[in-house]
UniProtKB/TrEMBL annotation:
InterPro entries: AB_hydrolase_fold, Hydrolase_4, MAG_DAG_Lipase. Keywords: Membrane, Transmembrane, Transmembrane helix. Signal peptide: none annotated. This is Caffeoylshikimate esterase. It comes from the Eukaryota. Residues 141-379 form the Serine aminopeptidase S33 domain. It comes from Nicotiana attenuata. The chain crosses the membrane at residues 31-50. The gene is CSE_2.
Amino acid sequence: MAVEVGKANEATIMLTSGASGRVSALFSLRVLRSLWLLLNAFLLLFLLPFRGRRRMAQEKSNEKEAEKVKMVERKGTFLRVPAKMVPWKSLVDQEVAARRALAIRRVLQDDDKETVREFSCFGTSRGDTMFTQSWTPATTKVRGLVFILHGLNEHSGRYNDFAKKLNASGLKVYGMDWIGHGGSDGLHAYVPSLDDAVSDMKQFLSKILAENRGLKCFCFGHSTGAALVLKASLDPKVSARISGVVLTSPAVGVQPAHPIFTALAPVVSFLMPRFQFSAANKEGVTVSRDPNVLLAKYSDPLVFTGAIRVRTGYEILRITAYLQQKLSSFTMPFLVLHGTDDAVTDPEASKKLYAEALSTDKNIKLYDGLLHDLLFEPEREEIMKEIIVWLSQRL
């Protein structure tokens, strides 16, 4: 076992995220007054007089948008129709179709001669369709597998450069967009249950292993994706089939500003699960010190840049609380990497994971001054090399 601390050159912090890591912003003190007034209004106007008629209330709420019109493309022409004639689910389906088409187009347009990039979709037991993609070395013998799970509000395609670095080392890579993200089904950035995302991960992992028998498989997760990897690996059926995990900036420690918000979160997420707090946008946190990376990230249509949805925020609080109670149950070989200046997820929680996990093969690397999106920091080449060396030593 070894604990290492890496140092990075100083750099000026530039731009802000506006999307990642806004759980604290969602439950900030400034939002409390608005939240309390909103709850009282909702209880007085809707719950008491119309209890048991929640569906009717939702339909009336949808009718408030009747004045707006939506553009519906049909046979090359545009028809203007009232919004009430376009079901909410239909609008979400149209948005999903547009996201998926873009994700597919990016895969098909990748003409890298060293990598064979492909996409596929699979159906879940819930009836949702998940978008996945793979990167296979074109000229290098495949020695092992890496399954990538992206973080909140992003998608697997953002890890294209990292996947190709892994390919160059003989590692075939798979990525899955979890529910409500990238090319997968669901309202953008709305996660009704992270347990569903864990189940989807397990299902796709079984497919990967069935197609690549005899090869060792590792899981990589970033931020909330790392939390999904951790929770899945607590299942003995999963831990018996993978050879280790790599975690960058894992969402093991994400806490609201005041304990009262933890108590309110379940209620609000039940009453208004898709609701977004616009104030959260003003509490953006810088996730990288590379301005070009930030511009690329937040101009990407597949990256969600709106305010965090209430249920999504609650689900993150729920999974981090669960993991905090299970750290000593973690026995998989792992490498955890974290920037000391990460303002999204707590580096101290990664230290706690390292200290309490019962794994006999565990490593931690802390990068002085680095922020949340480690693979998109100026020092990303060094970080990718660290990961590849760790993986190669365990093939």
